[in-house]
Structure formats: C-alpha cells, structure tokens
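G., the chain you wanted modeled:
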Amino acid sequence: MVDVSRRSKRMVGIARHGRLKRSSPYATAVTLVAGMLAVAVVSTSAVAGVAVWSFSKRVDDNAIDITVGDTAAPVPQLGSYENGFNILLVGIDNDETQSAAYGERDGTLNDVNILVHVSADHSNAVVVSIPRDLIVAHPECVDATSGAEFSAMAARPVNEAMSRGGLPCVVKTVSELTGLAIPYAGIISFDGVVQMSDAVGGVPICLDAAINDDSAGLYLPEGTSVVAGDTALAFLRSRKGVGDRSDLARISSQQIYMASLMRTVQGNGTLTNIPTLINLANAAATNIKLSTSLADIDTMVSMALALQDIDLDRLLFVQYPGTTGDSDFPGKVVPLEALAAEMFAKIAADEPFILPGTMPTPEPTPDAPVPVETSTPPTSETTVPTPQPTLQALDGLTGQTAQDQSCAQAAAG
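Predicted structure as tokens:
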C-alpha cells in the first residue's frame, strides 16, 4: 500500500526576479479567463465604465474567504504582478444552481482541481491537473458557514474536500498535498463552463476516432470538431468515451481542450472584440466565485498584465503523477510520491522542467550589437555567449504544452 500521508514541510517562497516583458492569453477553461478578460476590458475605453463596474461588482459579491484566520495575500497596485503566484481552480459537481440535466449527488464535489503556478520572471507557467479520484490525506477543516468541524482523514479521494468545508478546505487539502502556498482560488460550475465556451464561439477539438458516449451525451466524429456549450461540457466530462476510460484519460482530454482554448483566444481576436469581451465578462462574473484575495479588479489586471504573452510552448499542462494499478484502491488513483515530490520541489524553486521525449525551446538571445567605428583598434578578445541552462525532463510525467495540437484518444471498442 502506498503511503499517502502528508508531508510535514511546506515548500514555499517563490524567488523574486526582475520582470521579463512577456505575456499570454493566460486563462484556463475555468477562471483565468477572468483575469485576461479584465485586462482587455479595463484597457478598452469603449466599455471601460459600466462593463468594468458590473464585472467587478458581481465578482466581489460572489467572493469566498479562503484564509480561515490566516493573513490574506497582499493586493498589488495596478500594474504587472511582480512575483510568481499559485492559483487553485476548482470545477464543482452538483452545485445547487446547476441544471438537473447533469444528475444529482448527495453532496457537492470538487471534481476538477487545477493548480496553476506562474514563475516569478513570468516566462513560463505550469498547470497541474489533480485527478478527482486521487487518494490523499485530508486535513482538519471547518465549514465557515455552518461551523461544522471535520477530522483529518488518512486516505480518501481528493474530491471529497469540497463537502468538508467548501473552497477553503479544498485549498488547504491541495496545499498540504503539494507543499505549496496557495493564496488565490476560484470555483466554477457546469453551467459556467457551458456559458463561457459559448462566449468564445467554441473550441476546436481533434479526435483520433469517433466518440459515442451515452453516459456523457457525447457524440463526435473522427477528426476536428468545434465544440461549445453542452457539447464542450460533455467532452470535458466524458470518461467512458476516451482512452482507457479512467480519470487520467479524462484529464488528458481536458488538457487538450484547455490548450486549444488558449490557442483559440490568442488567434481569433477575442481580446480586441468588444461584444465577445462583454459576453465573456458577463459569463465569468455570473458563474465564477473567486477567493476574496483574487476578487479584486486590480489583482486580476496585475496578473494578466504579467502574462500577456507567455509563449504557448512555455505553458505546460501536466497530470499529477499517479497510478490506477494499486489493488488496495481499486478504481482510484494513488500518488507516485517520489515523482510528485520532485515536480513540486521544482515548482516551489521556480525551476522550469520539460516532459520526457521533448526538446526544450531555447531562450531568445539578445540582438547582436551593431559595430561602431572608433579610433581604438579592436582587441583579439571574443565574447563568449552565456550558456543556457539545460531543462530537466521528469521521467514518468505526462502532459503537453499549450502549443501541442494533439488529438484526444477515443475509447477502444
């Protein structure tokens, strides 16, 4: 049986570096679209008044305090965010406001858990998808609304955290699992995914074979289809229709969707299309609940300014390392702790890494200086270029970059 007890030390402290002039469509399929969108809205005079006020007001009304007595994260001044940061994005099942078409459960579950780390120099980002069935240690939690207290548990699926104290408990659980401080978080329901995918006009998805998944209501042909609304949600939820029908296969599909969303938003003029921006702002503000630390227009704009164009090949989507082959937890995902510890140590230290079998993209080199005639004869000395660090590939890690246009795998048979 794999030991899934919590690590006692938290890997915190993101190095503060000088900012590079980089940025990118940073939003994920869940809430980072809100930050990207906020930047465009506040910088566009045609909609700067009512649209910004309306967006900010609704986001503030839905805010959730995740500090539970801890010191809140400082709110930066308007301008590019100066450090690295971690945000946890949570997709919930059985939200009280969601459509009955998505089924009913006894409690609300955090079925999608995405941890986003942005490096201190804003040159790269890592998006870690945590399987909902990952067996983890759960800390003590208190429900801020009801006052109910929940004892620590040794080994239970991570998606039970939401029912043990809401978003603050999910944040605490993932923070102790990863060893990372997580000052920012947000949640989105099924209905939110539908409305936000509609707002951007759909996302192209490539399939290596047709999918006919009755349980998810997903029917797509082989090749590329543009999915939006309920079809996009069905693709993100489908488990029996993809890969080996496991939660890990579904995560791969979700990462393919998020990468395509990034490319779509970057390439179709979303950030300069005022009607699209307003629709996206309304969908985000209505359906997303952010932590109080993040539900501030200045904070979101600061983060988006810091990330306006991170290269898509430096935006890495990875799965939390795990295995479905542990007989003690049939049908569940058990952490590969050594690989997970290695990955999160690099994330905490702001050390970029790559996937096995991939080649790192070289850092851009500064332009060569233009020769200038002088009366001083040139010397025989030559300038030796500074060697670029070699990025380590983490063996066993799976995922893709936002630039990777992979096709999702349909389930065999």
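The chain is about 25% helix and 20% strand.

Shout if anything looks off.
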